[in-house]
Design brief:
Blueprint (H helix, E strand, L loop, with lengths): L30 H14 L8 E6 L4 H12 L11 E6 L8 E3 L5 E3 L2 E5 L1 H9 L3 E2 L3 H4 L8 H7 L5 E7 L4 H11 L8 E5 L8 H16 L3 H12 L13 H11 L5 E10 L13 E9 L11 H19 L22 E7 L2 E8 L6 H14 L15 E8 L3 E2 L12 E6 L2 E5 L1 H7 L3 H12 L11 E5 L1 E5 L7
Parallel strand pairs: 1-8, 2-7, 2-8, 3-6, 5-7
Antiparallel strand pairs: 1-10, 3-7, 4-5, 9-10, 11-12, 11-13, 13-18, 14-17, 15-16, 15-17
Length: 488
């Protein structure tokens, strides 16, 4: 397995690997069972981001409670991505100390094998007085350990971690650590912030507190975050011990991101322990998966040549034909594909017969090459659109194919930013989402409010006016169809 991280010794000269502390309690100690469980969690998770995260906030409870949320966070990562450093940051649960502890004695061991500790961990401990290399805070700490199997299972390339435990409850420690780590906050690296949210209130109180904390994080303001924490903890909610157990770790991330233009937070999924069959409703712990991404508005950076468009249309038709004939679709010769077609991008495939819609399915994924997305969506549009019966072999010759290749999404603050006919919309509220391609507005003649209302009601299933308090994103599409090239 190819390694992508800098530094391979990780303190190995001292040879004191950190052994699992919570295998068999927080997650299975058996490699076979752990892999089986992880596969289930990742299979159930969905990819919802259109940009790669530079940071993730994920929970660290026992897997039966929080693993579905954690897996949803990690699944946003491109499995082929190679990281220079993965910073694993958590707040101490097992002992009180001042400053930050970096594990530098050796590597981390899990039932899935060894995770190498980056030499950068020792460099940081040697360079900064508030960062020590005392291994004691790490010995029984579960916050970092439980994240490792997710990374080991999901990422295809070897990686190294910089394991950091924050001690105490000092905001100044978070500020210092943020100043040290800020230069590393870029697309080469990944920051994993390990934290659960509210501890031990009722289900209803947890949901309220956790939403307040997530909203503060999404605002990308460290002061709003601390205000939300204090408001929740002083709200009088019974048994609320903390609004976020890893708040010093979350604060560290916010202290970095709020100073960098173009970084936004995307909430991915929320649950609490009361949603698990093993949890109770009167005493719960909250779990969020939240991603920090660098917003991209550069829709003009990507384009397709006429040859690219024709190649995708031919590929879509051949893939559908092979599938309907019971054959396994074969990928094209990659050497003959342009770089554009191998670029990660989302796409929709639309089928029409006699000018009437016959199927339309797409994906916003930016973790899969465009040609693969088109192949998968072509088959899905022909056979999986619940609104229509599957396309048959006999009618395929009468079906015309249209492809819409998507540009990166942009979150908007006002619907006045939507230009009908140019922008597609993606509406997200809670666990519901829906989208309309740009051409829908032109084809229907809808007004802006009708465009939003139909999308909210018919696609996102949040009601006609649901868009008013939902997140709204716009994107553009490169649209082309077979009749443009006289292919039929």
């Amino acid at each position: 397995m190819e390694s992508s991280c800098k530094g391979q010794t990780g303190g190995s000269s001292r040879g004191v690997d950190r052994q699992p502390a919570v295998a068999g309690s927080f997650y299975p100690a058996s490699r076979e069972q752990l892999v089986k469980d992880l596969q289930g969690y990742f299979d159930a998770a969905e990819v919802s981001l259109t940009s790669q995260p530079i940071a993730l906030i994920v929970p660290h409870a026992g897997y039966v409670f929080s693993a579905p949320v954690a897996a949803a966070g990690f699944k946003q990562l491109d499995r082929e991505r190679k990281f220079k450093h993965i910073f694993l940051i958590g707040s101490s649960h097992t002992m009180y100390f001042n400053g930050v502890s970096a594990y530098t004695q050796g590597h981390f061991i899990t039932p899935l094998g060894r995770v190498k500790v980056d030499d950068l961990a020792k460099e940081l401990a040697d360079r900064y007085d508030f960062i020590n290399d005392d291994p004691m805070p790490h010995e029984r700490e579960h916050g970092l350990e439980v994240q490792l199997p997710f990374l080991q299972y999901w990422l295809k390339h070897e990686f190294c971690i910089v394991p950091l435990i924050i001690g105490g409850e000092s905001q100044s420690t978070s500020t210092l650590l943020a100043e040290v780590l800020a230069p590393y906050l870029n697309e080469e690296n990944l920051f994993v912030i390990s934290s659960d949210f509210s501890h031990y209130p009722t289900y209803a109180e947890a949901t309220k507190s956790d939403k307040s904390m997530a909203d503060a994080i999404v605002s990308n303001s460290s002061s709003a975050f601390m205000k939300a924490k204090l408001n929740s903890e002083n709200s009088g909610a019974d048994n609320l011990v903390t609004a976020m157990c890893g708040w010093t770790s979350g604060l560290t991330l916010l202290k970095m991101t709020e100073k960098i233009k173009g970084i936004t937070y995307q909430p991915l999924i929320y649950m609490n322990s009361g949603d698990s069959p093993y949890g109770e409703k009167d005493r719960v712990v909250g779990y969020w998966a939240i991603a920090a991404v660098r917003e991209s508005n550069r829709s003009g950076d990507f384009s397709l040549t006429e040859e690219d468009k024709m190649e995708l249309l031919k590929l879509a038709r051949k893939t559908i034909t092979d599938h309907l004939n019971g054959l396994k679709p074969t990928p094209p010769d990659l050497q003959n594909l342009s770089a554009n077609l191998k670029t990660n991008a989302g796409a929709f495939v639309t089928l029409r017969r006699d000018g009437q819609l016959r199927g339309c399915i797409g994906s916003f994924s930016t973790t899969t090459p465009l040609y693969q997305v088109v192949m998968a969506m072509a088959v899905a549009a022909a056979t999986e659109d619940y609104r229509f019966p599957p396309v048959t072999r006999n009618e395929l010759g009468e079906v015309e194919i249209e492809i819409s290749v998507l540009t990166p999404m942009k979150k908007i603050s006002s619907i006045d930013e939507i230009e009908l006919g140019r922008h597609g919309i993606y509406i997200r509220k809670g666990g519901h989402s829906g989208t309309f391609l740009p051409q829908v507005a032109a084809e229907t003649g809808w007004s802006l409010e009708e465009f939003l209302g139909h999308c909210a009601r018919d696609k996102a299933l949040i009601g006609w006016d649901g868009w008013r308090d939902a997140e709204i994103f716009t994107y553009e599409a490169i649209v082309f169809e077979e009749k443009d090239f006289k292919m039929n």
